[in-house]
Amino acid sequence: MNRPLRIVIPGGTGQVGELLAVHWLKAGHDVVVLTRGGRSSGRTVTWDGKTRGAWCAEIEGADVVVNLAGRSVSCRYTPENLRQMMDSRVDSTRVVGEAIAAATKPPKVWLQMSTATIYAHRFDGQCPADC
Known about the structure:
Radius of gyration: 15 Å
CATH class: Alpha Beta
Number of domains: 1
Number of helices: 3
Order of helices and strands: EHEEHEHE
Strand content: 15-25%
CATH topology: Rossmann fold
Number of strands: 5
Distance between the termini: 39 Å
């Protein structure tokens, strides 16, 4: 491919999203981060992670969507926090899917990625089971 890609990252203000945004920006791609208010190296567009809105225009004609959206897992795992973590991942996946389904020129690639675990920040090897 000889042209820059347009990559949309819902929830791209977290650790993984920021690493991806910086990498793809350095490679010359157009990166759009859908955020509820966080900062990013890419161009940011506001969304609520639950409902379709003006942000859907970013999906139209995008090459890639990488959905990383979800409530922060950096908290105590109380029943309420666990519910919010699950709901935020289900809601964002549903609404991203709706936006892609409604696009006249949908992205060719949609990568869905969620986690509910915090891992140690390390580059020296695998994360041990207790990190």
